[in-house]
Amino acid sequence: MDHGHAHDHSGHGHSHGAGDKTRVLVAACLTGGFMVAEAIGGLATGSLALLADAGHMLSDTVALVLAWYAFHLAGRAATTRLTYGFDRVKTLVAYTNGLTIFAIGIWIVYEAWHRMAEPSPILGGPMLVIGVLGLLVNVAAFFVLHGGDRENLNMRGAILHVIGDLLGSVAAIAAAGIILLTGWYPIDPILSALVALLLFRSAWSLVRESGHMLLEGAPSGLDRDDIARDIEANVKGVLGIHHMHVWSLDGTRNMATLHACLREGINAHAAICDIKLRMAKVHHIDHVTVEPEFGHCADRPAGVHLH
């Protein structure tokens, strides 16, 4: 029996992770630094759009710091209790980030509803200046993160937070411009609510995908049954594949376990090597555990034969 785990996670992957870790930290510093200024500006001008964006930036700063810490933990070696290491922390943080965005969006909609009922005066000029500065900071943070690994859920969650901030800044600028031109204060809560609705859609996508991963669901684009049929058809000596499981730790590290029923007389080691090679080359799954079998499955009574 060969448990042959592919432990060679390439240097490219490690360097990519280190780069992502640095990008997230820079974005956290940019976001946190401007969040304080925007909160003060929102209170001074009376703008819900600025306060909503400042609140979002506060949560984003925390989320980005958590994302940075997740990348930091992922670099640690596996332990006797955490045998796969800490990569799954990134997925957990992505899931938490999605839920946080939902909570912020609900708060923004709630505040917008009250502001619509009782509009209050807003200082359009200072609001416009702060909105423009916030937009510049968010664009800078977005480009810092955009160069990272966008297949990684943790990085996608960080980018999503920054996009939410960017939209908030655009809404604040638009609201300030309309207020300066027309004096119509309700535009501030209206645009804030629209930004919240856009965030809901993106947050749902992140929560759904990271939740699926936490439930050990098969990664997108990988069909377990198709993979099993491919191995049966293309690996010499394999009669059947069963008890197959496919999952991912963080959206990039895909893994699989399977039982392979082999033809009598076939070299089990050679068959296992061929299975692992095809899984890596064709299906991009580098970490595979294969249990070879002849005649019957070890998980079934000896008298029950495989076909």
From TrEMBL:
<feature type="domain" description="Cation efflux protein transmembrane">
    <location>
        <begin position="24"/>
        <end position="215"/>
    </location>
</feature>
<keyword id="KW-0864">Zinc transport</keyword>
<feature type="transmembrane region" description="Helical">
    <location>
        <begin position="190"/>
        <end position="207"/>
    </location>
</feature>
<keyword id="KW-0472">Membrane</keyword>
<dbReference type="Pfam" id="PF16916">
    <property type="entry name" value="ZT_dimer"/>
</dbReference>
<dbReference type="InterPro" id="IPR027469">
    <property type="entry name" value="Cation_efflux_TMD_sf"/>
</dbReference>
<comment type="similarity">
    <text>Belongs to the cation diffusion facilitator (CDF) transporter (TC 2.A.4) family. SLC30A subfamily.</text>
</comment>
<keyword id="KW-1133">Transmembrane helix</keyword>
<keyword id="KW-0406">Ion transport</keyword>
<feature type="transmembrane region" description="Helical">
    <location>
        <begin position="157"/>
        <end position="184"/>
    </location>
</feature>
<dbReference type="InterPro" id="IPR002524">
    <property type="entry name" value="Cation_efflux"/>
</dbReference>
<dbReference type="InterPro" id="IPR027470">
    <property type="entry name" value="Cation_efflux_CTD"/>
</dbReference>
<dbReference type="InterPro" id="IPR058533">
    <property type="entry name" value="Cation_efflux_TM"/>
</dbReference>
<keyword id="KW-0812">Transmembrane</keyword>
<dbReference type="InterPro" id="IPR036837">
    <property type="entry name" value="Cation_efflux_CTD_sf"/>
</dbReference>
<feature type="transmembrane region" description="Helical">
    <location>
        <begin position="92"/>
        <end position="110"/>
    </location>
</feature>
<feature type="transmembrane region" description="Helical">
    <location>
        <begin position="122"/>
        <end position="145"/>
    </location>
</feature>
<dbReference type="Pfam" id="PF01545">
    <property type="entry name" value="Cation_efflux"/>
</dbReference>
<dbReference type="InterPro" id="IPR050681">
    <property type="entry name" value="CDF/SLC30A"/>
</dbReference>
<feature type="transmembrane region" description="Helical">
    <location>
        <begin position="24"/>
        <end position="44"/>
    </location>
</feature>
<feature type="domain" description="Cation efflux protein cytoplasmic">
    <location>
        <begin position="219"/>
        <end position="292"/>
    </location>
</feature>
<protein>
    <submittedName>
        <fullName>Cation diffusion facilitator family transporter</fullName>
    </submittedName>
</protein>
<keyword id="KW-0813">Transport</keyword>
<keyword id="KW-0862">Zinc</keyword>
